[in-house]
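Researcher: Following up on the earlier apo prediction. This time include the ligand. It's magnesium ion, with the SMILES given after the sequence.
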Amino acid sequence: MKIVIVSGLLGVGKTSVILKMLDPLMSNGAKVAVIENDFGAMGVDSEVLEKNGMKVRDLKGGCICCTMQGSLMDSLVSLKNEYAPDIVVIEPTGIADPEFIVGSVNAFPGIDLEAVHVSAIVDCERFLKVQKMFERPLKNQLKLSEVAMLNKIDTVPSEDLDTIEAAIRGLGYDGPIRRVRGDTGEGISEAVAEMRI
Ligand SMILES: Nc1nc2c(ncn2[C@@H]2O[C@H](COP(=O)(O)OP(=O)(O)OP(=O)(O)O)[C@@H](O)[C@H]2O)c(=O)[nH]1
Ligand SMILES: [Mg+2]
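Model: Understood. Below is the ligand-bound prediction.
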């Protein structure tokens, strides 16, 4: 089993991007499942994914990087037993630190883990306004990422995209940066390719 973590602050477009990642992930016949983690009671994201034919596990009421690590492991085991996915895409909460998820899945013997891939999404519409306030989670999300996606590129003038890229470099990230749109899928297969899954 391979795991792909799609991190990013609240509302950056994680679920939208995951929907558009599914085709490139499944292109060589891989079976893909998704684990959704959110604090709230509404399973809107999982409903959207299920409507699009995805096998989804919904984990609510806490964060899988800390208080709900056990639930994450249970979900991975049950997915493995019932569906045997080749790839499990994980959408953590907006403030999750992917490093803790990577650490816990790597230490867990209950799944045949081949690799863990991490990606981070930022929202161009809000990034420049929120980067100071969310510097710590942003750095945590970018730290292990194999690709950073600038999402919602349609919402800002193109010169802002260079400013945002420079700000991401300023947070210490030196990996590939891809400009994408979660609503249309633009750039997303290229971003998936950067992860060499
Ligand atoms: N304009 C624009 N809107 C987008 C784009 N991608 C996603 N959105 C919108 O952004 C909003 C949030 O998208 P989601 O995919 O739900 O974001 P999320 O990160 O999963 O949100 P949470 O799970 O609540 O943290 C939705 O209204 C999407 O339609 C994009 O490229 N451009
Ligand atoms: Mg979501």
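Model: Strands lie at 2-7, 32-38, 55-60, 87-91, 115-123, 147-151, 177-179.
Researcher: Noted. I'll compare it with the apo version next.
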